[in-house]
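User: Run a structure prediction on this.
Assistant: Running it now.
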Amino acid sequence: MTNPQVSLGQYGASLKASRYQLRDREAFAARSRSSYDAPSVAGSPMVGLGGSCGKPGFLLPFVVRFDLEKVGRLEVATEQFGRFVEYGAYPHLKEPGDKETTVVQDWTNATL
């Protein structure tokens, strides 16, 4: 990440377009250039933003396949941080008050 003073949230927000920029190809090209210098967290590189929610997506060093055992462990880990899991198309980690903070997606095509 170019500017270490910028938080991950600020970086993710900088990749999104305002409704006034949706047809501005120069603004899109600038956002695209900045995405090539993406941050990593705990050694996992950011690969983009989630398709529906726009949360940062990271390439994990393993394939994610959901089953009852794994989502149970996810719930335990999430509770340790005072969060809970909500299941839609993917598990969404949320704070009390229903604020979504993380999505765990099965991006198998990117992890194989």
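The chain has a mean pLDDT of 78.
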